[in-house]
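[User] I wish I could look at a protein chain and see how it folds. I have put the entry right below:
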Amino acid sequence: MAITAYPWAIKDVCVIYEWVIRQAHIIDGSAQPSYRADLAITAGKIAAIGNLSGVQAQREIVASNWVLAPGFIDVHTHDDLQVIRNPDMLPKVSQGVTTVIVGNCGISASPVVLQGELPDPMNLLGAVEDFSYADLASYARAVNEIQPAVNVAALVGHTALRNNHMDRLDRAATAYEIAQMRAQLHLALEQGALGLSTGLAYASAIESTTEEVQALAEVLREQGGVYTTHLRTEFDGILDAMEEAFAIGHSVNAPVIISHLKCAGAGNWGRSKEVLGALETAARKHWVGSDCYPYSASSSTLDLQQVTRDFDIVITWSEPHPEQGGKTLAAIADEWQTSLMDAARRLQPAGAVYHGMNEQDVQAILAHPLTMVGSDGLPVDPLPHPRLWGAFPRVLGHYSRDLQLFSLTEAVYKMTRLSADRFGLDNRGRIEVGAAADLVLFDPLNVRDTATFAAPQQLAEGIEAVWVNGILTYCNKAMTGQRAGKFLHRQRDLRKGFFLFNE
């Protein structure tokens, strides 16, 4: 797209619309070609699109050299408590993200009643004292009272439910415990939850049986909720883990989303064609999708099962040894003159970044038409993976513009309309009259991520302005001080937003 450079300015004029964004190249989220038009905002919604040269507004932006797109939807976050603790949400808004989906990987801030210490990996969300939402309704009220800078929609975590009703998590649930979890999940769905998430690879859930998860997922059938899953393994046994997920979804007539789909571990590199083939096969007969972050390194708590010298593992935090943050596990082991496994045990509890993926696999999965974009960022990590600050500009700049992995319209679609359709956010993720005015204005020639593994807390370049529910929230690389986010309850049967796969 050839775009000439024009300065942009904001000016006060007489009141007709609250905002008019003039002469923008509009990418509307549908994956259709862009077009140039003006866009007006009033009362939190898109009021008009077209040639608006004859109308005025309270405030105007001339955006001739920018792209105007729907605000990005981060479908895979762990921002559950962050939206309340730090409601400005700068790491997300500065990327153009206007809505976050929380409650992924089986861990959610609600419904939660702690029985003691936080089970791993629920400690990725915050500290014990942060968990005070016994049901989804109280969490939604807290979000609306603080009014964060982004909208929030929520999944219910399987591990959170297990925590609420089991004395210990290193075993399968009993029939009585499953019944209690089912009742709590049912209430959360009635209160607006999107569906159920699992994190079956973690020690807190790996002992759960397929039958336990299926019994919980059965609750999704009546209300049309979605089943999202951090698979039981993303390593050598990934195909079996995917089949388990698909079988659960099919048996309860619920759509399935594979979280952060990847080929993890050096022994798994190069298997993306095989993995995507399994995804496609399932998607031809059932509602199936995936999300992916645009990096070849993952991040989570330090997992002894993933300790290896096959690739670098960087420690991001350690409770007993905070001074080791930022070093590789191998360097720490050498410093302590001990084995890699012994060093990992001594560091726990701890967090880590695992450089355990192949870039070509990442590109294949990211480019696939069934894949949405999610950051999977960890906001409480003192040395977070750069995806927390850079995932969405990285898709626009590095993967779309520089590598030409897919077109800019396809990139926007993966971060807006596709996500909105799957999660039932029918008035978001699109630019059309009457839709919520969640919008991002960016420079397509210069947008890029600047966050790195060494210096991850860096603002992206080229994100010029962000509106959330019609309120200018981010502009000129700074928060405006105005926040307009809210909790988004599930509005419909989510099965309606999926499509069967046809090549």
In short: The first strand starts at residue 10 and ends at 12.
